[in-house]
Amino acid sequence: MTLDRFYPIFDDVRWLERMAPLGIKLVQLRIKDQPEPELRDQIAKAKTICQNSGITLIVNDYWKLAMDLDCDWIHLGQEDLDVADMAAIRRAGLRIGISTHDRDELDRALGHDPDYVALGPIYPTKLKKMKWHQQGLEKLSEWKGLIGDIPLVAIGGMSVERAPGAFEAGADIVSAVTDITWHDSPEDRVRAWLDATR
Ligand SMILES: Cc1ncc(COP(=O)(O)OP(=O)(O)O)c(N)n1
Ligand SMILES: Cc1nc(C(=O)O)sc1CCOP(=O)(O)O
Ligand SMILES: [Mg+2]
User: Which residues form the Thiamine phosphate synthase/TenI domain (predicted)?
Assistant: First the structure.
């Protein structure tokens, strides 16, 4: 299965309700700080929307809920890997994307046979505080050389204008949050992303 080259990330299913009709084909639901019933409700709604629109849904962090709700994909960071039951996740048939930021993290990720590897932040990100300032495009090329055919996701400070450089450097997929959600017209921005990546 080939993942779409445009990978928007939203923090609430209401974003997905708005953006699904525009034609996105891949999305991550990255909800933070919500009680479990709310998480469960949002993931279930996202699953229905994605099924009806032919969108691949990737659930961030909540691997148990993703398993319970029979989702297909999860995204895990290094701290998530510390607590995730990888054997159970694989038994459930879930596909997995893993975040990486340095060589040790990449080696650890590759040990889990990931379905994609994310490298970030490629550019400075305003979304969250991170110990890495910016990795740069050269590191994307280095990562692509190391992971070969495993899809490589570029994340962190990505924009429509920066996407071509990331693809040229070796990314297969480009992911973005604030370039869309903080834009004056998020719908227009998603349309621009779709034009730039199709
Ligand atoms: C595509 C993608 N790449 C990286 C991340 C970050 O995951 P993580 O390090 O676990 O941090 P949180 O997003 O959970 O704060 C991601 N979510 N998606
Ligand atoms: C959630 C996340 N993870 C990152 C990583 O490097 O692992 S960067 C990032 C934030 C992405 O948001 P924006 O597109 O607004 O910069
Ligand atoms: Mg996480």
Answer: 12-180
Q: Write down the number of H helices and E strands in the chain.
A: 10, 8
Residues near ion ligand 3 (Cβ under 5 Å):
61, 77, 80
User: What are 27-67's pLDDT values in tens digits?
Assistant: 999 999 999 999 999 999 999 999 999 999 999 999 999 99
CA dist., res. 175 & res. 5, Å (int):
8
- The torsion angles phi and psi of 26, rounded to 5 degrees, stand at -150, 135
Q: What is the CATH number of the domain that holds 155?
A: 3.20.20.70
Residue among 58, 70, 3, 71 nearest 31 (CA): 58
Q: Which domain holds residue 13?
A: 6-182
89 within domain boundaries: yes
Q: State the ipTM, two decimals.
A: 0.99
> Residue 86 falls within a domain, yes or no?
yes
Name the domain count of the chain: 1
The span from the CA of 191 to the CA of 49, in Å, is 19
In a domain, 88, yes or no: yes
Instruction: Kindly report the pTM of this predicted structure.
Output: 0.98
